[in-house]
Amino acid sequence: MNAILQAHALGKRYGQRQALADCSLEIPPGHVVGLVGPNGAGKTTLLKIACGMLAPTTGRIEVLGEQPNGGTAQLARVGYVAQDTPTYGNLSVADHLKFGAKMNPGWDAKLAQARVEQLGLDPKQKVSKLSGGQRAQLALTVAVAKRPELLILDEPVASLDPLARRDFLRYLMESVAEHDTNVLLSSHLVSDLERVCDYLVVLVSSRVQLAGETEDLLAQHHRIVCTRRQESDLPAGLEVVWAKHTDRQSTFVVRSERELPAGDWSAEHLELEDLVLAYMERAVDTGRGGAGPGGRTTMQPTGEAR
Ligand SMILES: Nc1ncnc2c1ncn2[C@@H]1O[C@H](COP(=O)(O)OP(=O)(O)OP(=O)(O)O)[C@@H](O)[C@H]1O
Q: Domain ABC transporter, which positions (predicted)?
């Protein structure tokens, strides 16, 4: 089976603005991938390139083993819901399902119908009269009913209330499990990603900072607290992602491919949110977002350890 996404030195410029830089990724099949990063990091740009809506300025990309702009056959394999959940205001809910059926060879009419009923949407209702959250639910329903091999969702739950968010994510997981769909979704809500994603990509300042299976990433990272010391006093083989020092104490977030060696410190695994924040802070504090997945950077020793 082909990789969900393979990118090599991918870059995108909008005029002078570098939106994506030197992005190399290989995401194996069979995953629900969470793409996380701060505002303006380049997430939408990467997702638009992946679904063929934008051409990269530099580098190469393959999605499901093909170029994203590979014609109608490729379009049928990939479902995409943009951040602004595009729907047609003048059409009814039922019209959207009819349109979906006409445009998509693999359309699952039963699934679409059942989901619309489950959501309590009136098929005759004009979409311009739906709330933002309802429009988002409709757009997501159309994308899922297309039964794509890969579903690309740009902040799919941003406009949903907490209950609807939980319901949608549960529905997404059920449908993914039932139909073996790969998913690539962006979100600012790490707690949501934690619930559904088994692969994580952290993008900051247009560059990939971290990518890998969530379970492996969590196993490889520790927060260690010890008496104040320099990064260079730590054993070799530990990559320092984040560091903070007080007068007497140092706290490090470290990555170790092997088991963490014993030392005169207390160590604990990180929650996913803390792991993501450590990489985000590293990129922002070094002001270049460029240390990359294998980079080694220390933050300035100021403030209190957390
Ligand atoms: N059409 C455009 N023209 C010029 N600059 C753009 C355009 N689209 C995006 N950008 C810039 O590219 C950078 C990346 O934008 P992008 O929308 O990919 O970020 P994002 O991570 O999706 O942000 P957010 O989380 O706020 O949605 C930003 O600095 C943005 O201002």
A: 5-230
